[in-house]
Amino acid sequence: MAHNRLTALRAMVLTFKHDPFHTDPAESYTFYPDGLVVIQDGKIRSVSAYSCAAVVDIEVIEYPNCVITAGFIDCHVHYPQTQMIGAFGEHLLEWLNQYTFIAEQQFSDKNHAKNVAALFLRELLRAGTTTAAVYCTVHPQSVEAFFEESTRFNTRMIAGKVLMDRNAPEALLDSAQTGYQESQRLLQKWHGNGRQLYCITPRFAPTSSEEQLAAAGRLWQENPGTYMQTHLCETTDEIAWVKQLFPSKKNYLDVYAHAGLTGPRAIFGHAVHMTEEDFCQCHQTGSALAHCPTSNLFLGSGLFQLFTAKKSSRPVRTGLGTDLGAGTSFSQLQTLSDAYKVSALNGTQLTALHAFYMATAGGAQALYLEDKIGKVAAGYEADLVVLDLASSPLIDFRMKYTHDFVEKLFVLMTLGDDRCVRATYVAGERVYDRSRNDPFSYATKNQ
Ligand code: GUN
Ligand code: ZN
Fold it and tell me: What are the structural domains of the chain?
């Protein structure tokens, strides 16, 4: 831990001042071609152009041809699905039954959960992601395992126990009452424990009874500051099933609204098939959406309407999600590459500025953490990623034919992946360094 010790990082620096969806993108960011980020006690103390005078008596780590941004934020991901990424051939509902619900049963074994959580967190950090909203499984021990591992890295993670009391294998079911009690106990132990934050997690409307959804809503209202995550309008088959299961409700979002599950710190994954009324309701209630492009393409779910979601007259808070294991990559760069393609199919253009905003400050805003993370600015928690602009022969070659920094960023998100990540900092500590023999030596030291 850094005790009053000053560390400084020298590289290009990119950070956002405004939302490029709502202002002139050219005015939305600050870029230092030769910048200096000074870190003290886990926080950013200052950000400025590099000068010799600024670094007297400070240890400076230099990253030539690299750019520092805020650590990436993944607003929707399932850690227990790490073992089943790239499962062949099915759409959502069959995919859940054939692959997901089989894999998740193994998390009754805490040891298995610990091993997968440890690998999952390393993969996130290797990809430059420092905060994520994470689904565990129905087993409380899967949550304990995840938060224990996250605590070792001191990462700011949002996670919770999945609630399911119907339409899943017996071994994965809780009940309205036990789900409430177990979530309450986990929440009391973990919410605000170090940097950990608790998220009440009814999986989606089809796997919860109305009673369970209402209990989840009650628990959430009783515990201000906690989060709520679930899935919404991911596929047309799923929407038709919700209509059948909840005939008295107006639509899918209405099922959640009735249970008290909309509002600030609600995160709805996917939201692919939304009406204007749905977007308005999310705007009015302050609920957030997680755009999961690699997953929506992989499962053939559909195309998220990002620019409609972000419409300036009623913007909806929107972050980026990998949605692993339906998503196909831990890397937010690869996720942005697919977000660009989804936008193109919708007839819109996702610029690199829109994209990097969504992966950093936009994600922080979606999670109501915009005063703590998502920016490289004084007072912010020092969660940072150092991106190498020449991490592969092709990227290095392609960069020579770029004309400005924004074009370089676009090449990075189109061709880049975890290999671009030179180092990852969590609360000021270098937890991942690509150039070390053991890139996670900090973490193993604390085992
Ligand atoms: N809907 C309900 N559960 C899941 C899940 O695990 N992954 C995805 N992509 N959608 C879901
Ligand atoms: Zn999901």
Answer: 7-71+374-433 (2.30.40.10), 72-366 (3.20.20.140)
What is the per-residue pLDDT across 248-279, written as a single tens digit (0 to 9) for each?
999 999 999 999 999 999 999 999 999 999 99
pTM recorded for the entire structure: 0.98
Q: How far is the CA of 44 from the centre of ligand 1 (A)?
A: 36
Cα distances (angstroms) measured from residue 191 to each of 74, 115, 269: 19, 22, 21
Atom of ligand 1 nearest to the CA of 231: 1
Rounded to the nearest 10 degrees, what angle do helices 332-345 and 405-415 cross at?
Answer: 100
How many angstroms separate the CA atoms of 143 and 107, rounded?
A: 10
Q: Which two tokens stand for residue 104?
A: 């998740």
Please check whether residue 139 is in contact with residue 183, taking contact to mean a CB–CB distance below 8 angstroms. no
Closest CA to ligand 1's atom 1:
231
Measured in Å, residue 409 CA sits from the centre of ligand 1 at 31
Taking the CA of residue 206 as reference, the ligand 1 atom at the shortest distance is 2
- Cα 298 from Cα 294, distance rounded (Å): 6
Q: For residue range 312-366, list pLDDT tens digits in order.
A: 999 999 999 999 999 999 999 999 999 999 999 999 999 999 999 999 999 999 9
Specify burial of residue 119 (Cβ count, 10 A radius: 0-12, 13-18, 19+): middle
